[in-house]
Amino acid sequence: MDIIICGAGEVGSHAAEILGGLGHRIRIIDRESSKLRAIEETMDVATLLGNCADAEMLRQAGCEEADLVLAATNNDEVNLLTATLAKGLGTRKTIARVHHSAFFEERGLNYRKHLNIDRLICPEYLTAQAIARTLRNPGAVAIEGFARGRIEMQEFTTGTKGSALGKRLMDVKLPAGTRLAMIKRQDEVMIPEAKTVVAPGDTIILVGNAGVFQDARKLFHGDKQARRKIVLMGGPAMTVWLCRSLRDRNFSIRVFEKDKVRAEELAEKLDWVTVISADPTERAVFEEEHLSQADVFISLLDHDEENIIAGVLAKTRGVSEVITIHNLSKYLDLVYDIGIDHAFSPKIVGVDEIRQVLDENPLRLLGTLVHGIVDVFRVKISKQSPATDKHLREIGLSPDWVVAAIQRGDDVHVPGADDVIMKNDILLVIGKHGKEDTLKKLLQ
Q1: Tens digits of per-residue pLDDT, 168-213?
Q2: Strands of 274-276's sheet, edge to edge?
Q3: Which CATH number goes with the domain that contains 282?
Q4: Number of domains in the chain
């Protein structure tokens, strides 16, 4: 592909390195000659010195013939303007990196749609989701990027007190917008049918619209769960997104933010979280708040060195699991050697998202569940697909596959049997490992 990257910072330079290594033709635009020289010394890519938000600069870079323009400067407004200009000048796909939640969460306006940009990505948001997946059930991994939090999926073992246990599914009143996608009982994996009975101790995969998911989960797991104690250090936007992702999932969260004004803002936004204006690395604060009893300590500060120090102190003082974030690649290998359990880099997470946008394969494996026994696929429906304009019940996916979610434009929802599949729909399909040939025949 012919790709133009605007901005030679951490995200832009890492994207150039990864995408260039995959064989794509890369050109980078930046206003700072020193950044471009550093890239020229390490990569075989073309560079242009100038303002990427200038239409003539984009034309000079060849945007009229480009497959992708990635606007990844440190200025949201410049990225939005660059991406919409490139699209108007003829670029096939555009991606704009944004930091501010107002743009990404589309508060007041769908900026992506209004400006005709193919994708907005926020590495900080994606990193928060990646951390949340580490803390939550791994069954949520495949769904997060697909639905941006509007749909939840969990793989869990049923309890002993759920009201749906021991009953046929046809006799269980699941909330609208939820679906039981898979059951594993000992060595057997099955797609549930109306007469299927869920038993205590079964491993199940449950999918549901975010607003009703927890109600459905209680039907299969009525037992009380111990709340995990999470401590967050620092209050950037990533903290807000992480707290929202962990809400109502048996987590007790405390946020420590030294800046009193920011702490008050966080307390107002996150009324289900305990926000404390203090430095948890100070021994007196650490001991007074009994932080050694925390299950997880996460440092989300802006500076890598401070995150490393905070993580090591928490680990040596008794916290069992420590997570840190890092903007500089040089620290990622180091932190594991000094006791940090998990390290995340927004630039790496962001570039992974860009690679997914570039993957135009209509059938894509997103991940595996239930220890590799169950696969999750993303399927794009074409006009020629035999599933187009048919109800789900007519497609014949059972007994190997089930459609867990449908993305149609900006809408994402868990479908029912009477939902009609339409061209350009994107489906999240869950099924038995090794059965993808059947899936291709049915949907492609």
Answers
A1: 999 999 888 888 888 988 878 888 888 999 999 998 888 888 778 8
A2: 274-276, 251-256, 228-233, 296-299, 321-325, 342-344
A3: 3.40.50.720
A4: 3
